[in-house]
Amino acid sequence: MKKLLPNLMLATFLPLIHAAEKPNIVVFLVDDMGPMDTSVPFLTDGEGKPVKHPLNEWYRTPHMEKLASQGIRFNQFYAQSVCSPSRSSLMTGQNATRHQTTQWIKPNTNNRGSNGPTEWNWEGLKKGQTTLPLILKNNGYHTIFVGKGHFGPTGHEGENPLNLGFDVNIAGSGIGRPYTYLGDYGQGTSHPVPGLEKYHNTGTFLSEAITLEANAEIKKAVAAKKAFFLYMSHYAVHGPFDPDPRFIKNYKDKSKKANAFASLVEGMDKSLGDIMNTLEEQGVAENTLILFLGDNGSDAPIGKTTEHGSSAPLRGKKATFYEGGMRAPLIVAWAKPNSESAAQKEWVIPANKINSQIATIMDVFPTVLNVAGAQIPKEHVQDGYDLKLMLSGEADPTHPDTFLMHFPHEHRSSYFTSYRDGDWKLVYSYFSKTKYTLYNLKSDPYENKNIAASNPEKVNTMMEKMKKQLTAEGALYPEKNGKVVLPE
To answer: pTM for the whole thing?
Structure first.
């Protein structure tokens, strides 16, 4: 028996040692944050160098600046134009056409719209479905969810992140926004944030409350010697635009709502800094990768919906087919760079770099799993591409230079499919008199001139590619008078 004891002890401790060597991963997701809602410049000049615009000068995000200085940011990162489709894409690696949650999910009703697809997936993600946290959990990770869920409506499986592969759920439910960031966070209303009773009416702003909870969970995981995956999903900067009392004094130059929005941004940025500080204090910063991203374009209460306002100089905002509707920030960096770290030797991320290749929210899924050393189940179909080479600062010729965004519902832009192919972008509008909108984003990055009429061959070529991908991914289409309306 004495001879067996060392082997038994080795068998007991090996999983812990192995778990400790796995990189920790933080996905820090900000609701409704576009690439211009920050002091970090994402847009570049013709030589690929960052250019600050007036909105970058107005916002205060020092911790985003720090993270960007430590790693790489993407200036052409695409998500869906509204939140639930993006969140399902992040969790599954699938385009919205494939998972078929093509509209934002209302907590209690089917948000199909008057001519939306009858069979669209308004119930969202389901228990037992292959998801990012479930794969990580099955590969030894402690999976933590904090903040906004919005994976499924109230009373359905996707309402609770615990059904989707998370070990811990704090404040996640079927709601897409809080009723308020103050007081009791909306108890007794149609949008109550659950599970934060100890902070009710203490003066703790919602963004701060969930940050305190996230940091507590990090400390628990470190104490237990568990590799962790933290999905930190802020309710900010979604409306209502309640001013964050910690930062509102810094903003006086614009409207009351715009000033309040900027304070939400700065409060979110403080959360990022607090989490980075906790990782450092706990001694795990060098072994923790952070992916900071938004889920769709900006919804800042600045300027007009379809013009150059909240996303200026980009055109449009959340829920439009313009670049301001579907471009979002993406920063990837180690919480504390150290070239001698084993994980960082495997995943080399240069400091203060910008990658101008197209990347998409679907790419987060295979990238995170590769970092974790986890395999995607063979039976799971996904549409993302591993960003490892692009994170190193190199161009990846195998990554498609395309992005298809399918939105067969009503919103600011209604019933459209957008297809990006290299420098070109085509929008097909199912019910509009102007069915085809074509831009060359190299010569017209701010989408000022529709050149479809003068480029019929390009329109036809891109329409064929668009229709082929829609078919391959199982797209559902708008309906009118009980009949499905297909792209022409």
So the answer is: 0.95
